Amino acid sequence: MSIENNYQYILSQLPQNVKLVAVSKTNPAKKIKEVYDLGQRAFGENKVQELLEKQPVLPNDVEWHLIGHLQTNKVKYIAGFIAMIESIDSEKLLREIDKEALKNDRKINVLLQVKIAKEDTKFGLTTDEATDIFNKYLNGNYPNIEIKGLMGMASFVDDETQIREEFNVLKQLFDKLSELKPLETLSMGMSGDFPLAIECGSNSVRVGSAIFGERNY
Ligand SMILES: *Cc1c(COP(=O)(O)O)cnc(C)c1O
Fold this sequence. Notes:
19% strand, TIM Barrel
């Protein structure tokens, strides 16, 4: 299948209210431009270095999402242009982004990444930590940040019941926090599990290999 066919096929699977973030990590700018030319604007990268190489050679209206673990000392390199940082996994990181947003005279959109997978390898906040941070935000902390929603990754397992349980945990937290202040974005679902994620309430999916092909790592 060509990238174009893959892309159109994924789009055809998404209900109208679900946003697609095309995860372009490890793929060269040329391939990203191919998908851009089909109309896609939101792209996801997980490494700052790689993002900084691609951003200048792609059109200005690309909406870049950072979806990987972000070290505080690298925030300054992306603070001027990043559209969304989906991977807030500590309060320290949020403080740093707030500071850099102010320096750049802009607000930075973020998602709180919540650890829902039972696997031990994934970054993310506990539901309690995310709730605590959200309350501080509502009380006026982090004035240069917009917390738009939550992001989570389910375990890499075949067991649909387990994946569904994990997504449901995030959906429940999303609904609970939305009672305090309505949240816009519930980012869950990747190439292997996005239909399930959408069933569980996702309205933003991060799809990479199903568009660009398998990555070689
Ligand atoms: C790589 C990655 C994706 C996309 O994974 P695919 O299986 O290629 O769709 C989504 N979310 C995050 C956080 C990722 O690191």
